[in-house]
Amino acid sequence: MSKVARQSGAPLTPIERQTFAAAEDRERLSSPALKAFTNLAQRWNLSNTEAAALLGVSGSTWDRIKSGKWEQALSQDQLTRVSATVGLFKGLHLLFASDMADRWVRLPNKGPLFDHRTPINSMIEGGIPQMIEVRRYVDAVRGGL
């Protein structure tokens, strides 16, 4: 069954799933996505290497992004990475009402998803699939799934 939307008495219409495939969407979403990711990188105290790896860019590209000298649209993969990390950030802040929300990603975790690594390291090593799994894990822990 597909999701549908109703706009003020109009017939139900299918909701299009956001895929980040359309160039227009990537151009429209890149600037706010980079702003959100840059803020998240500061809150999580990410090193340049960590931030670049999570975003899927080189260190020099991350430097240009941070300095505001990046004017290109992000790729579909990069927007997916931002979406996963911002969703994780939000989930952690719903789960924890303290600074633990930002510290959690730096703490070694004994769960099978992490194998004694920090969530940041597991996401860097596992790429997009692991980023999505970590986000799903936090959503499940907080009862969001």
Describe this structure in words.
With 145 residues, the chain is mostly helical. The chain has one domain (21-141). It has six helices and two strands. It has helices spanning 23-43, 48-55, 59-66, 76-95, 100-103, 119-141; strands at 4-5, 13-14. It has a two-stranded antiparallel ribbon with strand order 1-2. A hairpin with a 7-residue loop joins strand 1 and strand 2 (13-14). Helix 1 packs across helix 4, helix 2 packs across helix 3 (59-66) and helix 4 packs across helix 6 (119-141). It is globular. The two termini are 19 Å apart. The model has no long low-confidence stretch (mean pLDDT 89).
Number of DSSP helical runs: 6
Give the terminus-to-terminus CA distance: 19 Å
Rg to the nearest angstrom?
17 Å
Nearest-integer average pLDDT: 89
Side by side, the strands of the main sheet go 1-2
Question: How many independent structural domains?
Answer: 1
Instruction: Summarize the biggest pleated sheet.
Output: 2 strands, antiparallel
Order of helices and strands: EEHHHHHH
Shape: globular
Estimate percent helicity. 55-70%
Outline the low-pLDDT stretches. Answer: none
What structural class results from the helix and strand content? mainly alpha
Number of strands: 2
Instruction: Tell me what portion of residues adopts beta-strand conformation.
Output: under 5%
